[in-house]
Every structure is written in C-alpha cells, then in structure tokens.
Amino acid sequence: MSKNSVFIYSDAFQTYKFHDRHPFNQLRVKLTYDLLQTLGALHDSQIVAPRLATDEELALVHDTDYIEAVKKAGRGQLPEEVALNYGLGTEDTPIFPNMHEASALLVGGTLTAVDYVLSGKAEHALSLGGGLHHGFCGKASGFCIYNDSSVAIKYMQEKYGVRVLYVDTDAHHGDGVQWTFYDDPNVCTFSIHETGRYLFPGTGNVNERGQGKGYGYSFNIPVDAFTEDESWLAAYTEALIEIADFFRPDVILTQNGVDAHYYDPLTHLCATMRIYREIPKIAHQIAHQYCNGRWIAVGGGGYDIWRVVPRAWALLWLEMTEQSDISGALPEEWIARWQRHAPVSLPLKWDDPEDLYPPIPRKAEITEKNAQTVMKALHPIRSNKQRLNL
C-alpha cells in the first residue's frame, strides 16, 4: 500500500553525539518530531524506523580501511596519530563510543528513505538524521563521519539506475557530495551557501563546475555574508528552476541544513523562517514536474536547536504532506514541555518578527553581488540554450 510521505525516525539518532558541548546536537531531531506530533501533523502510520547501513553499502563511497578505523575508534582501539590521519579525534569530529554504529544508523535512515521512494511505497520521504555532507571517502570532516547523501546517491545509481539531482541549501558548501560525483554526468549537484571566504569548508566557488564527463553538472552559488531573505530566495529560485530544467532528473535529493538563519551561531547569514517556508515548496514542485513526485529529503546543519531547527524542519514536513498553510502560535504544550530544558526563550510563533535583526547597511551591494553570482553560475546553461536557438 502506497503512502504519500514517510518520516524516518528513531530516538537512536541521538546516539550520534560527540559530547555535551559540541554544536552538533541530534536532540534537534527529537524536538522536531515532538513538535509535529504535538501539532497532530505526524501520525504513527507515517513513521518508519531506520536500519543500519551495511559495510558493503558504506563502501559504495567510503574506503574500507576508513570504515575499519571508525569501528576501532568507537571501541577506543585507534591510536591518536592514526585517528588524525582519518580526520577523527579532531575538535570538529571527536571520537565517541560506538561511533560506527551511530553513524551507520544515520546512513541507514537515508537509505530507508531511498527504498521507500524508489520502490513506490511513498512519493516523498524525510530522514532528518541525515544530511552529513562533509564526509569524504577516507576522512571525517565538519561534524560528518559517513556521508549519507553520497552513499545514498551511489546506492540509487546501482540499485535503481536513476539520474539524481542533489540540492544543498545548508549555509556550508556541500563539498563531500560535490567531490564524490565531480566527474559523473548522471549526478547534478547544486549548492547554495555562504561564501567560503570566511566560512568552512572554504570551497564552493562558481567556477567549480565538474571535471571530465561530469563537467557542467556541478553548480555553486556562494552568497555574500549577511545575505537576507529576498536575495537568498531570488538566487535559490532562479537557479534551481533552470538547473532542474537543464538536468531533468529522475529523483531529487535535498539536503536541508537550516544554518542560514540569523540566529545560527556558526554562520554569518541573515535569513529568517521565511526561506524555510519557500525552500521545500520549490523542491516539491520540481519533484512533481520532473521526477513523478520522487523526493527524498534529509537534514543537515542547524546549530540553534531550540529557536530555529524545530520550526524550520517541521515546515519541511508540513510542505511535504501538503499542510504548509500553518501560521500563528506554536503549540503551547510543546513550548511548556521544552522551555525548562532550553537555555534561551523558545519562539512563540511559527514566523519570525519583522524586526528580528537591525538593518544591514550593505543590503543593496550584497543583493547586486548575489545576482551577479547567479548569472555566472547559470551562464553555461544559458549559453547552451542560445546556441541551440540559433
């Protein structure tokens, strides 16, 4: 029996935990899950438990010696100097007990979403535990041990033979996924992110377009620091519509980091909840226009876990399930349940106030610069169209 949308969830997603002071905190997934259940917008029949990814599935992307190193690290058996060669034991990705199992569960959640969508059991699937886009084949990076999106795309190619459009709206460049498929013409990657001039990982320039047979299938829009809603949405909308029409994918995989918000402590963008209403709307349209509705969505960055992530990710599910007209007050029951745990005052409404932050003095300059960046990013598509029309 087909379900329109499924929500991949387990409390065990929280076992992916570096330490209590680390900014990456999977309690945000539980906060989102609880918000949706309190709202009555997520039903038990829509919830699907994740599975563990197998070593063979992880090895679709990751080196086997790296997988073994992660296992040893989680058992306390990996020497420090060896661990550092794999990006383990750093400030960003400290070692924690059973890290292989916790990481493999996040990958397995994304693979569960893939199988539901591509086997026809659901049109859309959301796994908020995933979105760890900085992981490389043999190295951890940027809070990411295994790269669930990269593994999922390879898995989709091998098991289902599909062309995949990967869309990354995290404030940090989706470097691990881009480099994995940089020479693959059957995977189109699009990342819109804060410029790497001041922000990790420092990549994602407009001129990173792919290589070999994959040249022309990698798109990046590095927006300027302090970019606001209007400019961000204009860039995202214009680019995604043209890229989807150019590539015409079989399935869309979206990474939904929500760290472009003004409150996020790790980035320098000035977005509000407004963009998190619009991001999934356009992805949803693309899925139905080109992919027969096939849309897989994962989580990603988001480090204000109290004020931003639950609202933004809840709006993603609400769009996916055609309940997105919600506005006004958040459920009082949810606020009361979590406020005593939060170090900040929880928001009372779905949307942010108009005066969330002081005016940005460089707004016109930033807007113009971002518009030029979009033109550069889309120039190959537009030039090719012009040649075909001659």
TrEMBL record:
User: One GO BP annotation here?
Assistant: acetoin catabolic process
Keywords (alphabetical) are: Acetoin catabolism
**GO molecular function per UniProt:** histone deacetylase activity
Keyword Translocase found: no
Q: Does the keyword Translocase apply?
A: no
Question: Sorted alphabetically, which InterPro entries does this protein's record hold?
Answer: AcuC, HDACs, His_deacetylse_dom, His_deacetylse_dom_sf, Ureohydrolase_dom_sf
What pathway, per the record? Ketone degradation; acetoin degradation
Question: Locate the Histone deacetylase domain: which residues?
Answer: 22-317
Family, as annotated: Belongs to the histone deacetylase family.
- Quote the PANTHER family the UniProt record gives: HISTONE DEACETYLASE HDAC1 (PTHR10625:SF10), HISTONE DEACETYLASE HDAC1-RELATED (PTHR10625)
Query: What is this protein called in UniProt?
Result: Acetoin utilization protein AcuC
Source species: Anoxybacillus kestanbolensis
